Amino acid sequence: MSFTSLFSIALGAILVENYILVQFLGICPFLGVSKKTDTAFGMSMAVIFVMAVASAVTWLVNNFLLERLGLQFMQTVAFILVIAALVQFVEMFLQKAMPALYQSLGIYLPLITTNCAVLGVALLNVQSGYNFIEAVINGTAAAVGFSLALMLFASIRERLEFAEYPKSFEGFPIALITAALLAISFMGFSGLEVFK
Amino acid sequence: MNSIISAVLVLGVLGAVFGLILAVASKVFEVEKNELLEPVMDALPGANCGGCGFAGCSTCAQAIIDGKAPPNACPVGGEASAEKIAALLGLEMNKNTRLSAFVNCSGGNNAVKKYQYLGLKDCHAAMKIAGGPTECAYGCIGLGSCVSACMFGALSIQNGVAKVDHEKCTGCLRCVEACPKQIIHPVPYYADVNVACSSHERGAVLRKICNIGCLGCKICERTCQHDAIHVVDNLAVIDYDKCIGCGECALKCPRHLISDANLDRTPHVSSVDKAANS
Which segments within chain B are labelled E, that is strand? Predict the structure, then answer.
């Protein structure tokens, strides 16, 4: 495990295997909280925190509890439990520390629980056989990739407010077209291999 | 068997540990909530429809408590929920603030058409062709853009004109925005008389294009004892602050376009006050 292999994992998770635009995980907040850049930023921070800590805790739970006891079939249930507890914690923290952000995130904050990107990263960590540090790096980088896609999309959507397009495209139709174009642009990263 | 027991144990212990952490966290990060929030939330319908313009019922309740929104902010809950909330907050419920929409046109089949429109059933589309099929520039097109905008089924097209069902209207005023001719206006819910015309054409011109529109003859103005109806730019306009809803103007109007269909409704609140004073 060298620095370069960690860097390769991180870059891969951010660009090549971008969770939203390449693997299509976590689409719900991608469309739901991308109207304004500041709420998108808040959501990104919450997801980065949840995904980083979830990667660490799920790795510990998987390696020290489930694998030792031969309970790998309980992975999904146990991971969901971990993620739900983490999201609850983040929600309480935000309500206390940043009520304005809590208000603007609204229903999408508890929905991080069911954000498949979070469960996805936990399961993919196990599947790829990462060690603890690799798992945490992969989780954080995947969340950074999620944030990158979300922030890009939110800034484009903010600009779209002033663009002229047919009225029937207002709202989700134009957002979906934008998302598709963004996903196509991320296809340019596919096949990018660093230090391998 | 063994794996079942260990699975139950592991998940149980994990759940208990996380539960404990969250219990501690909820004490540490406790947020003081306004004690009124819960009862106000209960008075609201709880559908989280966003009809009030807020993100959901809890946000709306908070805004009402903070005084940023009136007690009747919820168009769905209507009067019942507004009265409950007003009682909770100790506010006086001003009934005149409740709005409903009114279509200021009764042309439709009574109005002369410029051409026969066969396109999309949408007023905005019809407007694109020479300003709509009605000869009268202020007339209702009758293709029902307002009907599809209404979330409460309060609008319908009758005799070629949109009509608001007063009882179903919640005063959300989506139809007001949807009308390309801008002839739907918010009026006080307790307004008893309304002028069903928007035309500013002179009488001589209007007579040729509409059988029913306001001619600006000023008979209503002369009839009114309360200085509440005036002809401005060839159109009778009611001043709802002065109107007591006696309906005299509606009786005298030679075109019968001042509607007074709601005589049996609860009287105008200010009219009760005025009657007591005089």
Answer: 99-103, 155-158, 161-164, 184-188, 194-195, 229-232, 235-238, 258-259
Cβ contact A69–B21 (<8 Å): no
| Option in B10, B26, B29 nearest A71 (CB) | B10
> Is the CATH number of domain B99-190 2.10.70.10?
no
Cβ-defined contact of B14 to A70 (cutoff 8 Å): no
> What totals of helices (H) and strands (E) does chain A contain, helices first?
8, 0
Mutation test of the interface with chain B: which of A103, A109, A167, A168, choosing the one with the most B Cβ atoms within 10 A?
A103
The whole-angstrom separation of Cα B104 and Cα B235 is 11
CA distances from B196 to A1, B39, B106, B162 (A): 81, 41, 6, 11
Q: Radius of gyration over alpha carbons of chain A, in Å?
A: 18
Q: What pLDDT tens digit does each residue of chain A (196 aa) get?
A: 688 888 888 888 898 888 899 888 888 888 888 888 888 888 888 889 889 989 999 999 999 888 888 888 888 899 999 899 988 888 888 888 888 778 777 777 787 877 888 899 999 999 988 999 999 999 999 999 999 999 999 999 999 888 888 888 888 889 999 999 999 998 888 877 665 5
Same fold, B99-190 and B191-198+210-278: yes
Rounded (to 5) percent helix, strand, coil in chain A:
80, 0, 20
Domain coordinates of chain B in residue numbers? 37-89, 99-190, 191-198+210-278
Q: What angle do CA B261, B266, B270 make, to 5 degrees?
A: 105
What count of CB pairs under 8 Å joins A to B? Answer: 52
Give me the CATH code for the B37-89 domain, please: 1.10.15.40
For helices A37-60 and A116-127, give the axis angle rounded to 10 degrees: 40
Spell out the CATH class of B191-198+210-278.
alpha beta
Tokens read off for A8: 């390769």
Nearest CB neighbour to B59, from listed A92, A93, A103: A103
| Angle, CA B194 vertex, CA B189 and CA B197 arms, to 5° | 135
Residues in A closer than 8 angstroms to B22, CB to CB, are: 85, 88-89, 92
